[in-house]
Predict the 3D structure of the following.
Amino acid sequence: MADDLLRDVEQFFYREARLLDERRFHEWLELFTDDVRYWMAGRRTRYPQSSKAITVLAGTRRDDGDIEDELPLLDETKTTLIGRVARIDTGMAWGEDPPSRTRHIITNVEVEPGATASELTVYSNFLVYRTRAETEQDLYVGARQDVLRSVDGAWKIAGRKLILDQNVLLPKNVSVFF
Amino acid sequence: MATDVSRLVDAENGRISRRIFIEQEIYEQELERIFARCWLFLCHECQIPRPGDFFTTYMGEDPVLVVRDGNGQVGAFLNVCRHRGNRLCRAEAGNAASFTCAYHGWTYRNDGRLVGVPFIKEAYHNALERERWGLIPVAQVESYKGLVFATFDAEAPPLREYLGEMAWYLDAFFDRREGGIEVVGGLHKWIMPCNWKLPAENFAGDGYHVTWSHVSAIRAGFGGDFRVGADPTGVALSPGNGHCVMTVGANMNADPPAPEIQAYEEKIFPEIVQRLGPRAGTLKPVAGTVFPNFSMLKPTSRTFRVWHPRGPEKTEVWAWVYVDKAAPPEVKEANRLAGVRVFGPAGVFEQDDMDNWQACTQTGRGVVARRHPLNYEMGLGHDRWNDDLKAVASDYRFSESNHRQFYQRWAQLMAAEKWSELKS
């Protein structure tokens, strides 16, 4: 992939991160296509295939990477993402009142061709620091896989898959966007 | 010396001391007298269908290994190696004929027997009595409608007796149709910085908070119909032994606002009444808690969960999403999505709960704040035993009747040294 394409995608992500950190959620929503699937899951703790800690009695082992059929943390459409922002706008979303202060750090961006000529598959890592009220703080760290689609000369997010690396989630809630 | 909790819980007058939510000594007493004594939920049978399938969980703070052995029998053991006390199985779930400890290699079969000790001949001179050093089993393990429970107390009454009149209400959640329920995918696990009793009492009887705590999600279209005006009936019910259920009127539609689910619920309603009896036609159970820490919910999101205690100010919640096994695939999928979007750590309802329970716990650190009791007076004197409902019933949908029953049972257990001192 050409350097200028990579640069272009990175700038798109940085701008998106700034919109989130500045709580400009309506502008953030405009970055998504109407058919987006926005999905997040945590990680499992399983013995790997090579582990000698157990001898298997029946069937095949499940690896800790097999999370597609797990219960996700988020499985959203454009409509439900709009609903989540509308919820905050009511002024009665108490878990975000007072609001979280976030800093989205996006790194390790890799760009690959997508399923169609107008799409890219983009891998990245995220580190989201959240602090709130007096001393609350949380770290949300994980991997992201996006489908970016070129629409009228601008990038739109047509798919987002987020993997949070924690098993038992340490933050009390996931009330911020990624 | 046990703390005398009789002065801390005044159920008669609806006053509860904040000390029970914050003090370490009281917490330690809870681990002994509540969690090492009561029937606690382990998992649903559908999570371990095959011989060798295992699931690791906790009873109180004790790690527990639940496993279906080669004969299909479900057993539960402390997940602890007998040699040095290392955690034996480190995975959350899987399938195993045997488990080997990572420290010195002691190996246990999935029925708990110690079958392998490295250098048993040379180092132990064959003198180690392996049959005495198997995994420590729980005292009793039993299932009710696919829900697997266990207790560490051999004196505890059988599960069915422990559940008592609560059993019918569990049927209304988990056995509404032939085949019962199944869980969807895995489960959500996360840490709440609050005392475990706050979520337990909330699911037990706090219909009151829904219309304020969750008003943002309701207005944004994520919830069912919670308007009291839609059907003002519905009551808080305590069927005994500290178990609690919240109900809404039969005409209330608190199901997730998904057309597949709405049509399905309407269609199966007569079948449910047929299966569960006329009581199911007069009210809809929507939430509840099996004492002490297993809670369930039906409207908006089908979830059941365990509130694992982790110290007076910390709770680890494990939450599942469930569906009727007999439901068609599109209804199961709609329930899965509602479950994920509305409850769980990112749920538009639940994310606000954790925030409230955290502060309700932490302000109790103040010694002066702690001197003032909490108010559990709602509906005081307006609750009485109802023969049709087989429960102590409130006379209005919002009441703290269930809370008072929950804490009364808590206080009885905390005061009693053994089961025989308790009347069930």
